[in-house]
Design a protein that fits this description.
By secondary structure, the chain is mainly alpha-helical. It contains 4 helices and no strands.
Length: 131
């Protein structure tokens, strides 16, 4: 039970740090790719960051299979959570003037919505997890 709680806390830390990666990459890419294209690129950057963090810190330990296969499996799983995340982001852009003015709020909303699915998926994929 304690190991599961530890992994959940570290997963949330990873997600919190990834939120800054996500917002930063969105800020950099938005002038060229717009709110939606920039968000796709920023999500990929944040998902890659969380994979590295979770692989090496949250779910550390012996792993099965190749690193590339694990990354692609993780990324595929995160894409489902990412679709949920992106949907909440897009919906908040449409619904709230404040989010259109500051898309970082939409990133935060989407990140919170996708958290539970992504945690459960990552815990399953990272075979080194003892949770």
């Amino acid at each position: 039970m304690l190991q599961r709680f530890r992994s959940l806390i570290l997963f949330c830390v990873s997600g919190g740090l990834a939120l800054f990666v996500d917002i930063g990459v969105l800020a950099l890419t938005r002038p060229w790719l717009g709110n939606y294209g920039g968000r796709a690129v920023s999500f990929l950057a944040a998902a890659t960051f969380t994979w590295l963090f979770n692989r090496n810190i949250t779910f550390r330990g012996p792993k099965e299979g190749s690193v590339l296969k694990e990354y692609l499996s993780y990324l595929s799983s995160m894409l489902v959570g990412g679709a949920i995340n992106y949907g909440a982001y897009a919906a908040s852009l449409q619904a709230f003037e404040a989010v259109r003015a500051q898309p970082a709020w939409g990133v935060a909303i989407g990140s919170l919505v996708g958290l539970a699915f992504n945690y459960l998926s990552a815990r399953h994929i990272m075979k080194g997890a003892k949770a």
